[in-house]
Design brief:
Elements lengths: L11 H5 L3 H25 L6 H26 L11 H6 L8 H27 L3 H28 L2 H20 L11
Helix pairs in contact: 2-3, 3-6, 5-6, 5-7
The structure holds fe (ii) ion (2 copies).
Length: 192
């Protein structure tokens, strides 16, 4: 349903579990970036039907997630500091074609795939983290990000022929796994 070409390997959680605070900081930045992506699409594609209304919901929800992540960091006594991001998102952004309307389609599908991967990772965190409150929060985020995946791919289907969307989604899903594999030693939400 999430259209991921490959599921997260079982080694991922053990590789990050001793760096949970860093993962939480990384995750906080990602919520902010998700809001920013949706907002920038509202600016660029205001004339595309459904974009302002539906993406304004995404902006509001991602900012809510961001604020709640700040609360979680505060409660754990963790300071939000700058972190080098995983190479994942920038690798995926390189796959976005520069010509319109292909650019619009790719932006929607890349945003959708990032939501899908985050969603999958949140379901792992929901099962694995020791803190029951945090686990419950990740359960809730799993659902929210799954809805965002559906929203982005739904917008793509509203604006492009079904077959074009499916073919491009298949191709980008393979690139998404490559982006996940992009070398990093850093413990990140989107590390391999
Ligand atoms: Fe979010
Ligand atoms: Fe999201």
């Amino acid at each position: 349903m999430l259209h991921l070409a490959e599921l997260t390997r079982p080694e991922w959680y053990p590789s990050i579990k001793d760096s949970l605070d860093v993962i939480l900081i990384d995750h906080t930045h990602l919520e902010k970036r998700a809001a920013s992506t949706a907002l920038s699409m509202i600016f660029r594609y205001t004339g595309r039907s459904g974009v302002p209304r539906r993406l304004s919901e995404v902006v509001a929800e991602e900012m809510d997630h961001f604020t709640r992540m700040l609360d979680i960091l505060d409660a754990r006594g963790v300071e939000l500091r700058r972190l080098d991001p995983a190479p994942y998102a920038s690798c995926l952004v390189e796959e976005i074609r520069s010509q319109e309307p292909q650019r619009f389609l790719d932006k929607l599908l890349v945003a959708g795939l990032i939501e899908a991967r985050s969603c999958e990772r949140f379901s792992i965190l929901a099962k694995e983290v020791d803190d029951p409150e945090l686990a419950e929060f990740y359960e809730e985020l799993f659902e929210a990000e799954a809805n965002h995946y559906t929203l982005y791919t739904g917008l793509a289907r509203d604006h492009f022929p079904e077959q074009e969307v499916e073919e491009r989604l298949d191709a980008l899903a393979l690139k998404e796994v490559e982006a996940l594999r992009a070398e990093t030693d850093l413990p990140r939400l989107h590390s391999y």
